[in-house]
User: Fold this.
Amino acid sequence: MKKSDFWQIVAVPAVLVLPGLLELYSINPVLFYRQLLWVAIATVVLIAAYLVPEDYMKNIGVLLYVLSVILLLIVLGLPAHGPKRWINLGSFKFQPSEPAKFATIVVLARLFDRRRPDTAFWRAVVAAFIPFALTLIEPDLGTSVVFVFIGFAMAYLAGVRTEPLFAAVVLFLSALFSFVPIGYLIFVLLVVAATRILRYSMPFTFYIVFASIIVALLTPVVWEKGLHDYQRKRIIAFFQPEKFEKDIGWQTVQAHIALGSGGFTGKGFRRGTQKGLAFLPAAHTDFIFSSIGEEFGFLACSLIVILFAWWIIKVMLLAGTLKTGFARLFAYGVALSIYFHAFVNIGANLGLLPVVGLPLPLITYGGSHLLTEGAMLGVLFRGFKNAIE
Assistant:
């Protein structure tokens, strides 16, 4: 790998921090100064993670994983009237699920590096399932899905046989299609056809269809008993936001208005009316992308999307040049995490995905996710630095 590649990978995250700081100053200068402090602390965390040798990082990651699981359990035991996601530390709210993402990536990279992929798969499933289950109970549906996505994507890139991954996708889609009986029947027929095309064994086909039927039967029960009312509303409002314009769909409708009103170049710095008149809720968190779009337009939003896409693709392509299996798999995990967060957050702002509260990496206001991203980038940069020719 060339030095220029390394510095490009370092430069893009630094550039992506800037539009977030600029927009936060526009929303409220107090938020800007707080975020600037978090950026400084995250930079210190990044440097500290960069200086830790790989062998030590593997062990630190395991300890951090255990600690994050303990903190997730503590969060569930705290009294709260709503979702139990944060630990209050004075003026700062700490979200244990954020460092759990970093720790899970380290543990998965360590598992797949030390063992044969198929042997490590079920251990990896357990490692990803524990934080998934604990964050789902909080409840934090968006964050819980992050662990599932990262776990299975890293397993695939590590070389795990496709059968377990195929089964996971089928079971997930079974839950979605279970609400449409005819659609589900067609889906099952397509699954059987796919198993024949992929030349899976007949017993595997039987088991996957049987498991799919069980999931399809249980999903309506989980929908009614397992999800909170606001979660069901969010999913329904995703398909028809105008119907819930004065309720749960208010955010999505106002985000559309903010983005659309910005035009190509935007209304100008500090001239956004949606967030200025408090029509756009959570302008500094969930909908900062829409707030940027209102003031700086389609041009700025496109640049942010291009930078994210370019950086993620660059990391994924160059990961193969890294010297150790751990460094390669960790790089995959970080790129996948950044991709998933950016994709879901921007998709929600555009109305293409439900609003699930995932931050836009490096841009959304908040300390927990910035510190985690700093740790991820520090270890990532260390791996790429070691690979420079």
Notes: The chain has one domain: 3-386. Residues 3-386 form one domain. The radius of gyration is 22 Å.
